[in-house]
Amino acid sequence: MNFIHTFALNTNENNMQNRTDINESVFSPEMKLGEMIDVNYRLLSILSRLDVRLGFGEMSVEEMCRRRNMSPELFLMICRVYTFDDYVPSCADFGREELRHIIDYLKMSHRYYSEYVIPRLCNEIDDTVASCDVLHGKVLKRFFDDYRGEVANHFDYEEKTVFPYVEALLNGERPAGYSIESFEDNHSDIDEKLSDMKSIIMKYLPENSLAGQRNEVLFEIYRFEEDLKCHTLIENRMLIPLVAKIEKQL
Length: 250
Hints:
Blueprint: H1 3-26, H2 33-39, H3 43-49, H4 61-67, H5 72-81, H6 96-130, H7 134-170, H8 180-185, H9 192-204, H10 211-249
Helix pairs in contact: 6-7, 6-10, 7-9, 9-10
């Protein structure tokens, strides 16, 4: 390996470490919840999932986590996932209690998507379909309905198979015939079809469709897509490694 190559590798590693240090330092347990929202307004949805309602005054992260018996380190890690595009969480120091909270958070995210995000997106799709001709409207509606069914199946599998398996491990049991590796091997990215839906709306709906309405539905899709990527990152980099560690202990 020549000097230039070595220098480039060291520089990249240093840059990555610098970014990690910056990401780690932005949020702290002493930080006020309102200050966090000023840094990234998308964290409002995270607080909503945790049933932290507006009107929290000068409450700090540490106080909020203490009231909910949640690790501040875990909460801040989740917030960083939703704030920094290059952030990769590491849960090497986490244990069973944090894993319980990760499962709870993923369940609350499923409920947030199912009860709030997807119905809102459905309304936007219906309004867009109403502005299209019959043929294009049917194609878009059918595509969205198929996607909504795929998301429901994905959540259903996790709720009925993966999460009960993890909860059994946390209770000291090791169910036969399943492992977190099975989940990892078959873990589908439910945000893939959103890219296809964006293309249909941007590129293939006729120009006479209402431009403003198309923009609104695209905004919703982009927000949902970003949130799902964070959700998947939490599953891949936090849930799966922690479960694998516990499996080795049983």
